[in-house]
């Protein structure tokens, strides 16, 4: 506690302008209900879960504390709003629903640009063991940590504890892949609503209603609402940054003799040679080209509209 009675803590939940802040006192974890000072709204700043904050007594019995300061964020994602996220647990099913690898690769790119460590979890591999092994091989060869979780061999608490440490980790991915079920299992109690996959639309019928940090050993984990699309442009990704989401291509691209090579169609490009040799997965390469081309074309179209 500071000299002025201030307390440092972390926001674990925010609903309707009231924030729950966890802080420590005499070695115990305590929670306080807080409001945010109006100065944040005037500056266009909105507190988010994961924010490291300073609070003081408000004198209001209904909301006893007020947030006076928000520390600089190490990382931030805006869908949903989570600050200081260190690990993204990208959860996709091998089957039922089929894995959307375009969405997965977009999320990997966003993680790389946000300095967030991605860990890929493939669920339901028991429904198609061959595809599960193939997906693991593709992404392991690309340089990512990949885990399999099945009803028989689920992801264990000890394994996740080693991954998270004292950080903040978020499960993210489409609905219906088992994120909430897995999260409930790891926490040891039913925390989120779960549901079957709709036979008509092949998506989960239910999604997480809100985002909240939950204590997990020395760190935190949270579930996030399932989603089926992600716009790289809305995330502020530039076409020149796409390469950072493909470490296996980046590694080879350093040997390219063209400084401005896009690694899409140039003759003599070492990346294209590696593709023909089977060193780079063809699907991953196609998605790299698709992301690059879409963002490049959007940028040029924007410039053209500005000139008109």
Q: How is this structure best described in words?
A:
It is globular, with a radius of gyration of 22 Å. Helices cover 29% and strands 25% of the residues. The chain is an alpha/beta fold. The strands form 3 sheets. It has a 6-stranded mixed β-sheet, with helices on both faces. The protein has a 5-stranded mixed barrel with strand order 1-2-3-5-4. The longest helix is centred in the last third of the chain and has 26 residues. A hairpin with a 2-residue loop joins β2 and β3. The protein contains 8 helices and 13 strands.
Whole-angstrom Rg: 22 Å
Q: Which stretches are poorly predicted, pLDDT < 50 over at least 5 residues?
A: 194-208
The total of beta strands comes to 13
Give the SSE string.
Answer: EEEHEEEEEHEHEHEHEEHHH
**Strand order, largest beta sheet:** 10-9-8-11-13-12
Strand content: 15-25%
Query: Tally the helices: what do you get?
Result: 8
Kindly report how far apart the N and C termini lie: 59 Å
Give the overall form: globular
Largest sheet report: 6 strands, mixed
Structural category is: alpha/beta
Overall pLDDT confidence: 87
Helix content: 25-40%
